[in-house]
Every structure is written in structure tokens, then in C-alpha cells.
Amino acid sequence: MAVMNIREAIASTLYSEMERDENIIVLGEDVVGGNGTAGGPEAIGGIWGTTPGLWAKFGPDRVIDTPISESAIIGAAAGAALCGKRPVAELMFADFVGVSLDQLWNQMAKFRYMFGGKTKCPAVVRLIYGAGMQTAAQHSQSVYAMLTAIPGLKVVLPTTPADAKGLLTEALRGDDPVMFFEHKTLYGVKGEVPDGEYRQPFGQARVVREGGDVTVVACGRMVSFSEKAADKLAADGVGVDLLDLRTTSPMDEDAIIESVEQTGRLVIVDESPPRCSLAADIAAMVTERAFTSIKAPPAMVTGPHSPIPFSRTLERAWVPSPQKIEDAVRRVLGFR
Amino acid sequence: MAVMNIREAIASTLYSEMERDENIIVLGEDVVGGNGTAGGPEAIGGIWGTTPGLWAKFGPDRVIDTPISESAIIGAAAGAALCGKRPVAELMFADFVGVSLDQLWNQMAKFRYMFGGKTKCPAVVRLIYGAGMQTAAQHSQSVYAMLTAIPGLKVVLPTTPADAKGLLTEALRGDDPVMFFEHKTLYGVKGEVPDGEYRQPFGQARVVREGGDVTVVACGRMVSFSEKAADKLAADGVGVDLLDLRTTSPMDEDAIIESVEQTGRLVIVDESPPRCSLAADIAAMVTERAFTSIKAPPAMVTGPHSPIPFSRTLERAWVPSPQKIEDAVRRVLGFR
Amino acid sequence: MQLNRDELLQAYRQMATIRTFEERLHDEIKTGEIAGFTHLYAGQEAVAVGICEQLTHADKIVSTHRGHGHCIAKGCDVKGMMKEIYGRAGGLCKGRGGSMHIADLDVGMLGANGIVGGGAPQAVGAAIALRLEGKGSVGIAFSGDGACNQGTTFEAMNLASVTKVPAIFVFENNHYSEHTGDAYAVGTDKDIASRAEAFGIKSWRANGCDFFDVFSVFGELLEYVRAGNGPAAIELDTERFYGHFEGDPQRYRGKGELDRIRDERDCLKAFRARVTEGALLADADLDAIDAEVAQLIEEAVAEARADAMPDNDTVADDVYVNYY
Amino acid sequence: MQLNRDELLQAYRQMATIRTFEERLHDEIKTGEIAGFTHLYAGQEAVAVGICEQLTHADKIVSTHRGHGHCIAKGCDVKGMMKEIYGRAGGLCKGRGGSMHIADLDVGMLGANGIVGGGAPQAVGAAIALRLEGKGSVGIAFSGDGACNQGTTFEAMNLASVTKVPAIFVFENNHYSEHTGDAYAVGTDKDIASRAEAFGIKSWRANGCDFFDVFSVFGELLEYVRAGNGPAAIELDTERFYGHFEGDPQRYRGKGELDRIRDERDCLKAFRARVTEGALLADADLDAIDAEVAQLIEEAVAEARADAMPDNDTVADDVYVNYY
Ligand SMILES: Cc1ncc(C[n+]2csc(CCOP(=O)(O)OP(=O)(O)O)c2C)c(N)n1
Ligand SMILES: Cc1ncc(C[n+]2csc(CCOP(=O)(O)OP(=O)(O)O)c2C)c(N)n1
Ligand SMILES: [Mg+2]
Ligand SMILES: [Mg+2]
Which intervals hold domain Transketolase-like pyrimidine-binding (chains A, B) (predicted)? Predict the structure, then answer.
């Protein structure tokens, strides 16, 4: 097993999968970089460093820099996927779903259903998301709830290098459109990554730790925040079952229910505003499926009903913190 | 009080409000109709018949036909609103949020917050939505959950002519961006409409009926479906508290909680797919706020996790039906 | 441009099939059996057929809300289409799509589209894919004079221009987007093709009511694109014989306009005149095709009516290839 | 074009303020005190100032992610801006917006924008509003050579063309969108302005590193638009002196490119040479302004550093004017 960070896990998986399958193509803004400049192609790759060397190895017909036109990027990916390719399209920031939603929602996601099940659209869209770098209201959002709500899309959020490899491989081998969310603060997270072919099936939550007193469900950056909270709680003798969802569509409802049936108490941590959120989705699902098991109302730790502010202190106040998670756990434990 | 249908209530409110306030302007595709044709402007107004006579009365600078470019429509509304106008922009189908989301979500909704509270953006966006006319997967969706989730927007869904007038007037007098949803199957619904100035404040649910045994919360077309279910249940001696939300952002949480505290049982009817839906939002909120009062898990009656099909029978199978609502009520009543 | 007898017969058959299909729908819709939005292609047949007759199944097209003509011209099964529009289980898309969402990938028809402008980027994606195949196949986006104003259409042209892929933008200018004239909504001093040219895309123009003109001009364009010269565009001046959708009172039309375009701009009449005058085909040849087509459409309607409605249990099928 | 002494001094002061503001930020960012994305406008000052000096507060502009220059040129308070970029409570937007979201409606600055292409439709909306006022005011969208490819920009141009409102599209071509050259990403045989012309929009071109050229060409354009002739566009050939954002290693630049543009394309140097050679102003006049500006920026940084961070309790304030 090699040790690498999430950025490297994504870059190397893209590279090796493209070597394996000539139908995989990559497109996005500056995924090559340097086109049309004195420095030439790959003078600088994408700003996230996840696509280096692809152009040199696989050439300009498979690794395509696009103008700033996200609808065209996603639409082209959709069209290429209908024609038997496996495009990997990059949205440099997940917030750019705003300028490309139609192609995700009304096109890519619906083709197979509308066309009577005769088509498939195996496109992977990589979306870089999340707060924590003071990128302010239009570059910090966690758009996964909006896309989880859309029938026809799968939604994936790796939090470890191994999962980044396993889930991306799975996305590239599957036949449905996959929204692959990469949290901008997690790129540097290091860990062991299995060598060779490695797939992580969707719809299987990762049990981060077992504690038995309370269930905490999280995804993305909120997993590590929940671990911090769990550490503090463990010091006080409170044992947390922590689940990293890995994928929100499909979602591992059974793993959540199983844990809640034992603990009777649930905290959901969701880096997004509260309304019609993933937190609400899970709270409602658990209440429906495990009503007689829950001893307290599921607690939802989310941001407030506001955009994400720029200022360092305000941004921190906006994002769910380990402290708020800890408080929520204590609240549900104390509920009578 | 005059008797009119919802279409007429909207058309006459637009007209009289434009007479009152010269800052109100209207823009959208074919809101005039006939521009650039032999028939000339207003040969045919919009396909919904909600803007007749505006062009003739208020002129081409206030009533503007646009090319097919929804991002430009919403963006122009946002810009005009920042400059002191009160634009009313029409999205001929709410599904076209797909091609205009950025201007709604990252622009209009966020200006005031991002700019430190010094600006206001009093734009009204009219969105024609909903299933029931076999308009298939891209022309039938109920997009209110997606917009309810967005901090900065208000979301309004009238179901009676009186509310259409009252809520539209309120939208046009307020200072925040309002998403005004008009269900395409409800335009013909008739009712009494108060004469003269009439405002319906946001965030106040309408008590459609009181029954005491179970709470049913609905919006849009689902209100009348719920009434049908309630009629059948009443015949069996089951009394339904039926709430029409009127607005989902802000939402009248208190009215819901108050009823649930009495009935202990809740059914939410939501014409949309289930994930991260308004139904889940309400179920989670009620579980959180009224955990000790609820005697059964809140039931969510939604469409399935699929796009909306074209075929008459399939579309009916997709949309929550009076029968399914009735079944859900019986289920929550039978829960032990 | 040299079309042999069989090719001429086939072209006429295709145009006649579209016309008859659409005119029949126009009547059937009045019975109330067909709901939703049905946008008829009648009047524009020369465009779809003049173009698609030069394509193979390896070439891909992306269509619009007014897609029946493109579907038939590209080779979709006519009976399957009729069933689809009737919302039947045996429809080309199992009744789930309806008039605005007919697709058949086997013949290179990637889909009609209810979102105006939705298809253009997809055609560029198809062209990206087809360039990799290296066989000279092309990706084609049909767009109207309304759709040419949607941001996606411009983005698609720019992306095609930059990537130099074999994408073709076909602009069917029938002079109306719903109830608005192109004279109003298309911002330009010149025409739609000139806007494509501004992207560095070589553009052609043709009479969209004249099969032979479409065929020859598009033929030249196609040769250019198949040769690897990058994208191209063509604007076709054409006519819509019916309303925007069925039920449209068409008060935006000029006095006598409908009569005039039926008289002077009917591509089927023009085709017949040309081939009979030139003694390429006889009236009887065409009449025979008319009869066959009438029979086909008659059967299509009868079979559609007789077909079962989809099973309610299938309502949430086929959302994914596999979900769990 | 006749600029009097005061006007020349003012123009220089504005350009020098932008330059000093940006160069100081370039240094401050290295200290780690300023996070998020900061896109510096240095090099392009002649554009913002050459345009905004001809506007009043009644004219509205919509800016980009690279907005500091437009803000200063339009009259935003420099100290308030600095505090904003430092994320302080006293910032122009209370620290909530940051570098990419500075606005001040009182001076007609409708907002910087983190979404490339987001502003263009809003400028058309402003122009719709301003036409109603009937005072000849204009709505201006600043866009880059990258933003000119976004669908919204095209839609905005078409809408302006169709509605004939007083909207102005200013295309600042600094030849890069992030790390990609305009030679690659702008699909055209000609230039960005020619694409605007294809929409029937009268277009101009100017040297964006020469204040006097910008001023006079834009002056002509402005007269045209104020007179009610409808929208207009201008493309400015300009240079970005720093990386796309701070931290960009700029390996896409040619050998010696940064030196060359600093040498040959510096609008401040050119301005100084022109006004001193022409004896319109003396070096000492300009030096005095440089000193004042240096002082202002020094104070701005000191005050920003000293200002309080926003109160955590305000995190969800001002989402609505009133919610319940
Ligand atoms: C994004 C979007 N906006 C608006 C519509 C509504 N609509 C359907 S067809 C149409 C007019 C299209 O005009 P054109 O492109 O010229 O095609 P034609 O109808 O003439 O074939 C409009 C506005 C839509 N379906 N999608
Ligand atoms: C919709 C959108 N796509 C992509 C980006 C990322 N991005 C920010 S600036 C930029 C380049 C913009 O280039 P240009 O318009 O030329 O402006 P410049 O940076 O040269 O001032 C890109 C791609 C964005 N912010 N918004
Ligand atoms: Mg048309
Ligand atoms: Mg640039």
C-alpha cells in the first residue's frame, strides 16, 4: 500500500484508469492549462493539481481544455457519454452547478428514464466544493443536497485517499452519471491506498468508529470534525458510532438504521444551510424507519439559513464545528 | 368581492399594481407575444394568459419580451432590481431554473448578504410548475424545494384566487426576491377575491379545515388532493387538520407544530421526488420541535425517486393521489 | 449532387412520411387522446430529410422540442414513435418520454429535447467522441431561430470552434419562436449564420423549403466537416405550417400567410414539380409512395391506439442502470 | 477629448491608487493575513479609470472577480475596501463579501462577481432600469477574455441588442483566462469585438494600456449610447501584471514577458511620459500624488489591520430585508 494524499489518489486513479480504458476522456477549464500561451500546454495544469500529465500522455483529443462555459462542458460530457465515451468533466467549483444545472438535472440525469431505459450516460462530474478557505459566498458551497435530490444522479464524497481511489474507480466502471465531490480542504489528507485495481462500491457507509452511545452521521469535511468531537466525548466516556456516508445517492440507510436501533440517538452533520438539506433527509428517513427506536429527536448540525461569509471568523462561525457537534451529541444524550 | 380564477387574479393584480407603482416592470418570453411578426405586439400574449394588455397599457419599456435566454431574463431582473425597479420576471416553466439557477442562487439571493446588508433586490420571479398536463420530464417539475433551500429567496405558492392576489401583492410590496410558483393545473380554479388593496403576509399557513385527528400539510395542487382525501376520511369519522402552507420560505412552522401537538399525527404531501424534499424538511422540523407530541412517524407522500413520465397513466401513478394521501393518513392513525 | 432514382424515391418517402405523420397528429390531437405538448414539423421536411439522407447511423444528431421530423428522417421506427406520442407501453421510449423526448441511439438519434438550446452542447460532445473514432462521422445539433439565442448554443459553437471537432450547427429559421418573430428576437444586422461565422465557424445558407438546395448545400458542408476541417453551420430559411404547439391560434401570422406558405413554400409540392418536370420520376411513382405512407400512418395510429398503457409498476424503472 | 489639469491629476490619482492598492496587496498576501481568492487588477488601470472618469454615480457598472480597479475607479471608499479584503467588521460589506464581492450602490458600483459572466445580464437589467429614468445614464458590464465565452455574456448582448437599451459591454482582453490564452479559448477568426458586432452591436477597440486612447475611444462610444442609439461594446488590449490569483507561478508566460509588459505596456509610465512631454503636468505634480496615494494605502492597511473582526452573532444577518 502506498501512502498518498487525496489529490494524488485522484490524479493517479485518473491516469491509470485512462491507461486501462481508452474511452475515458477528461474535459474542463484549465485541466491542461497553458493552451494558447507561450508556456504551452501543461505549463500549468488545473488549479487543484488533479490532472497533471494527462495531456502529455493521452493527447489533446482525450484531454480537453474548454473555454469558460460550464453548460457546454457538462453538455458535451453528456453527449460524449451517449456516444460510448466515459467523460470526466471538471467543475472547478461546485458552485458552478448554478451555470450548468440544466445539463446535469434535465439532461444527463433524465436521459435513461425518458428514453425508456435504452440509453446510458456514464459521465463523471468532478465538483470541488466546501468552505474553509475563505472563498466566500460563491465558491464555498456544498451542493450535494441539490444533486442528491435529483433522480438519475449518483452522489459520491470521498474523505480518505483510499476511498478517493475506490470510489473514483467505481464511478469510472459504472454506467450511470456520477457527481464526484472533492472537498477543497481535504486534498492534502494522507493515507494508505491499496495498490492495483481497487473499487469501493457505492451505498456502503464507512464505519469510522463504533461507540454505542450515539450515532453520528457525516460526510465530507464533517467526518473529521465529527472525529474531533468524538475524541472529546470519548474522554468523557461517551461512545460515538461515527458513519462516513461515502455516497449520499445511493445512501446506506441500513447502516444508519442499524446503528440508531442500538444507540437510539442520532446527530447528523451537514456542511450546508438547513432547509431541505441532507440532514433533514436523513432525520426524516430515520424517524420513519426507526421511530420506535429513537429516544431523542435526531439533531441536525448545519450552517445557518444564510450564504457563506468571507471573513475568517464568520466563515468559522458558519461551518458546523467540532464544538457544535459535541454540543449536539450532549443534547441528544440529555434528552428525556 | 369578485369571483375569478387564479389566472385572472394574477393578471389583474399585475395590472393594478403596475398602475399603482411605476417601478414595476415585466419581462419574459412572449409576455407580450407577436413582436417581430405581422400580427404585431400582443397578437398573442404569453401562453398562460397572465399578462394580457400590459404592453398596450404600460408600453414597451416596462413590458419587455425577451429572446429565449432565461439566464439573461433573471439576471436582468436582478440588475434592474438593484437599480430601484421591481421587475416581475416570468419563467414559462419552473423547470427552466435549470438554465438560470446561477442568477437566482448565486446572484439575486446573495446580493444583500454579500454586500453587507446595504442593498435590496426586490425582484419577483413567476415560475409555472407542476405535473398533471402530461408535459413530461422537463416541463412538469415542482422546483420549490430547491429554491426553498436557498437562503435569501422567499418561496410562495398560491392555491386560491384570493391568495394569488394577496401573495402577489405582498411580493410586489416587499423588498426581497420572491419566487412565485403558479401551478399549471390550478389556473382555472375559481373563487372570491377581495376588492381593492389586499395583501396576504408570508409565513402564515391557511387552515383549510380543522378535524383534530391528524394533521395534513400540503402546498400547491396537493392541497386540493388532500381535501379530497379528507372528505373521504370525514365520511369515516376521521377529522383532518389541513394546512395549506402558502409559503415555504418563510414557513409557518408554528401552525404546523400547533396542530401536530393536538393530533400527534402528521402527513406531508409534496409533489416532488422524496430526497432532500420539502416533505423531509417538514418531517425533520416537526420531529425536532414536537418529538414528545408525535405518536407516529410523520408520513411523507411524495413522488418516487424518478423523473416525471409522459404517459397519462404513469404520470398519475407518479403524482401523489388522494388515494395515497388517504392511505397515509390511515397508516399514521393505525401506527402503534 | 447526383441523386439516383432510388435515392429520390427514398427522399420523397421520408418527407411524405413526416408530413403525413404530422398532419394526422394534427387531427388526432383534436380527439383529446394525445396530451402534453406536441410541436409539429410539417413544412420543414426538406431540412430534416435533405440533411439526414446524407448521414449514416454512425453520425449522431441531437434534436429539439419539434423533433418528429428529425426522428423519422434519421430512421426512427414510425410506429414506435406514434405509440410513444400516444403514451403507450410499446412506444419507442415505453411511453415515458412522449413527443418531446424521443430518442433512438441505434440510428444515431440522441434525443429530442424539451429544453430549448439543451442539445447543442451535446452535439459537440458527440463530435468529441466521434473524432476519437476517427471515421469521419459528425455530430449535428438542430436548433431553431429561438434556440439560437440560448447561451448554451453560443457556448457550444465556441467550444466546437476551439476544439475543432466535427460538429455541425443546423439552424432552422422558421421565423418564429413560439409567438415571437425572428426579426425581433435574433439580435443581429445580418442573420443567424453570420453569428456562427463570428465564432470562426464556416457557415452556409440554403432554402429550407427546397429539398434539392438543402441537399446540395449541406452536401458541400458535410464534405468540409468530414474532411476534418472542424465545425460548420448552416442556416435554413423554412416555414412552420402549423402553430407553435397544437392549439395555438396563430394570431401573429400575416393575412393569408398560411395560404401563401402552403402555396409557395411547400417542399413536397416543389419536389414533385422538380422531379416530374425533369422527368426524373413520374407522378405515379410519387402517388404510389403517398399511398404506402398513408397506409403506414393509418396502421401506426391503429396500432398505437390498440397498444396497452404502461404498467403503473414501471413508473420508477430505468432511472439508473443499477443503483445499489 | 480635452482634459483639463484637474481632470488629468484626478485620472492619475485614480490609476496610481489602484496600482498602489494592488501592489500592496501583493505584498500583504504573503504575510498570510488575507485569505481567499484575491485577483489583482494592476496593469489594467487605464481601462477602469479611462472609462469610469467619464461616468457619474447615476451610471451603473457591474464588475468581475478582478474588481478592485473598477471599484476604486467608480469611487468606492479605498479604506472600506481594504477592510473588506481583510475581512473586517468595518469593511465596505462588513467583511461578508471579501475581494470578490465588493459593491457600493451609492456610487453606482453594483458588485464584483465571483461567477465569471455573472454580471453581464445584470448590466442589461440596469440599462433597462436606466432607460426608464430617461436621463441618458448607462449600464456597463466589465468582462474578461475568459468571460466573453460564457453563455450569459452572449445572452446579455443579444438581449441588449433586441431591447436597444443603453448597455455597454467592456471586454478587457488581458490575454489570459486563468492559465489559458485568448488565442486558444476565444473562438473567432477576428476578435472579441467582432463577436459583439455579430449581434448588431456597434463596437470599438482601444489600447487598454493607454489611458488617453481608452478615454477618447470610450468617450465616442459613450456619446453614442447616451444619445439613445442602443448598446455598444469595446474591446481593450491590456495586460495583467500579476498572476491570475496570488500564488500563481505563471509558467504560461513567455520568457521575459513580465519584464516586457512592465517596460512597454505600463499605463502609469505612459501617462507620465505623455503629460510631462506635453508639458500638461510636471513630474512634481505626479510625484506629489504618488506620495499622497502611498500615504492613503499605508493608512488603509494600518486601519484594516486594527479594525475588529465581525461579530460571530452577525453571521446570519441581512439575508433578507425582513423574513417574517
Ligand atoms: C429553456 C427553454 N425556454 C423556453 C422554452 C419554451 N419554448 C419551447 S419551444 C420555444 C420556441 C422555440 O423556438 P425555435 O427555437 O425557433 O424553434 P421552433 O419552435 O420554431 O421549432 C419556446 C420558447 C423551452 N422549452 N425551453
Ligand atoms: C462560472 C465560473 N467559471 C469559472 C470560474 C473560475 N475562474 C475565475 S476567474 C477565471 C478566468 C477569467 O478570465 P477573464 O474573464 O479573462 O478575466 P481575468 O481573470 O483575465 O481578469 C476563471 C476560469 C469562475 N469564477 N466562474
Ligand atoms: Mg423557430
Ligand atoms: Mg483575461
Answer: 4-189
Nearest to D121 among B76, B85, B116 (CB): B76
Which grid coordinates are listed for D216? 477618447
Substitution candidate for ligand 1 out of C44, C116, C239, C261 with most atoms within 8 A of CB? C116
Please give the backbone phi and psi of residue C83, each rounded to the nearest 5 degrees, phi first. Answer: -60, -40
**Into how many domains does chain C fold?**
1
Q: Which of B86, B139, B221, B246 is labelled catalytic?
A: B139
* DSSP codes, D179-219: TEEHHHHS--SS-HHHHHHTTT-EEEEEETT-HHHHHHHHH
User: Are residue B20 and residue B101 in the same domain, yes or no?
Assistant: yes
Task: Single out the residue of B231, B142, B131, B135 nearest to residue B181, CA to CA.
Answer: B142
User: DSSP characters for B150-194?
Assistant: STT-EEE---SHHHHHHHHHHHHHSSS-EEEEEETTTTT-EEEE-
Residue D142, pLDDT above cutoff 70: yes
| Residue C47 counted as domain residue | yes
Distance of alpha carbon D247 from alpha carbon B173, whole angstroms: 47
pTM of the model: 0.98
Residue appearing with cell numbers 445558407: C205
Distance, CA of B139 to CA of B133 (rounded, Å) = 9
Choice from C63, C65, C143 to test ligand 1 binding pocket (greatest atom count within 8 A of CB)? C65
Domain presence at residue D317? no
| CA nearest neighbour of D51 among D212, D214, D240, D288 | D214
**Which residue, C312, A150, C100, A249, is CA-closest to B307?**
A150
Domain count, chain A: 2
What are the per-10-residue average pLDDT scores of chain A (336 residues)?
97 98 98 96 89 97 98 98 98 98 98 97 98 98 98 98 98 98 98 97 98 98 98 98 98 98 98 98 98 98 98 98 98 96
* Å between D81 CA and nearest CA of chain B: 12
Residue B318 sits in a domain whose CATH number is 3.40.50.920
Last residue of a domain, one of A143, A163, A193: A193
Nearest CA in chain B to D93: B116
ipTM of the complex: 0.98
Interface with B, mutate which of A93, A100, A275 (most B CBs under 10 A): A275
* Contact between chains at C128 and A111 (C-beta distance less than 8 A): no
CB-CB under 8 Å, A106 with B102? no
Contact: C187, D201; criterion CB under 8 Å: yes
Cβ–ligand 2 contact at D114 (below 6 Å): yes
**Helical spans, DSSP H, in C164-266:** 182-185, 192-197, 211-226, 257-264
CB contact under 8 Å between A276 and B99, yes or no, is no
Q: For residue A104, what are the domain limits?
A: 2-193
CB atoms under 10 Å from CB of C298, counted, come to 12
Cβ-Cβ contacts under 8 Å between B and D: the total is 161
Domain edge (last residue) among B140, B162, B193: B193
A15 with A107, same domain: the answer is yes
Closest-CA residue of B relative to A291 is B297
**Residue D236 CA, ligand 4 centroid: distance in Å:** 11
A223-249 tens-digit pLDDT: 999 999 999 999 999 999 999 999 999
Examine the residue annotation and report whether A139 is marked as an active-site residue of this protein. Answer: yes
**Ligand 2 touching residue D208 (CB < 6 A):** no
* Closest-CA distance of chain A to residue D286, Å: 36
